[in-house]
Amino acid sequence: MEKKEKPIYRNQSIFVWVVVLFLAYILGRSIFPLASSSYKGNSLLISVLVLLLGFIFSTILYEVGKIIFGKIAGYKLIKTNILGFTWTKQNNKTKFSFTRFTRYGGETLMSPKKDKASLVLLSLGGSIFVILINVICLVLLTIFTNNTKYDYLLYSQYIFSTIALLILIFNLAPVLNDEMYDGFVLRIYFSKKDFIKQYHQLLIQQERIISNTGKITLIEHFDLQNPLLNSAYVYNCYYYLDNNDFVQAEKIAIEGLEKGLYLTESEKAKLYNIKFYFALLRNEEEKVGNEFYKLDRSLRKQIINPHNFESLKTALLIASIIDSSYDLYEYLTLQIDKDKNKYYASRVNIEENLIDKSLSFIETKKIEWFKKEN
After folding, report:
1. What is the DSSP string of 113-145?
2. What is the pLDDT of residues 196-226, one digit of tens each?
3. Average pLDDT over residues 36-42
4. pLDDT tens by residue, 118-129
5. Cα 234 from Cα 275, distance rounded (Å)
6. What is the pTM of this model?
7. How far is CA 242 from the centre of its chain?
8. Sheet with 106-112, side-by-side order of all strands
9. Residues 226, 195 contacting (CB under 8 angstroms)
10. Which residues contact 217 (CB under 8 A, 6 or more apart)?
11. Within 10 A of 45 (CB to CB), how many other CB atoms are there?
């Protein structure tokens, strides 16, 4: 048996949180009382509101800065999620929707417009913009409000800047921090410069799926020890599914789960979804059931997420064949049209065909359910 490689980079989010909480305590002890004493009325309520506004503004500034500097660096916007407000480029149009928070409040996805697009500037853009705006505000407020009745504005800016600093630490920490933030991307960039072409290819694949700008292509011979390239397993599965090569799609999904050292939980869920789907169609429900229920609960929820069109093909099979739950099966069938309208136009027909196969298979396995309906 081939020996599985061990990951070089390990999740060190605990250390990031320790640093952030320590700084938050130190800065909070020195700044918060001064700011609170400068507020009139309910100072505690106002202080909490200022903290909340600081988080909102810092998140907005970070993502806007990433977009601005990303465009300067040679990238184009695919999708941005700022505090749940999401703008997506689809079919040359901008689509707005409200979705759940991602990461620590925001996420921006961009694709290279040219071969020499600067990944460094893209990764640093949000931080540069946040620092620039906060420095300008601090200088102006120090000049115009210090030792006046408006000094509460300056203290509020101190809080804003503190929140901004904490957000920058999360994003710029050069370690694997649950997910791959900009600081970690830069660390990989400076240690593995020869991967840029393939990484850009992945970003283009992402754009093709989200924005429906063309067919995805196969990515071959990528470095398994490079965390930024492990998502190639998912895109290669999509490639084979889109070309009706189901044997190869399943093979890649299994290989990715065995060899993918740095897959995110979302990527693992997608690969498990594909693996379990084909296994269940081969009547391997006992094997799938044992493996599925050994997984972490959070991962299981993503694999059979009823609000993700891509998950429904397997969710229907697990609900019906493994759990024998007619109520859950019925609920999932009602979700099909709802989720379909929210899914990517580039792949919706592919997933719809796979769901149809699930429904047909369930009808042959659960004949008693449909006799009851008639």
Report:
1. SSTT--HHHHHHHHHHHHHHHHHHHHHHHHHHH
2. 888 999 999 999 999 988 899 998 888 878 8
3. 69
4. 999 999 999 999
5. 12
6. 0.86
7. 23
8. 93-98, 85-90, 75-82, 106-112
9. yes
10. 201, 205, 239
11. 10
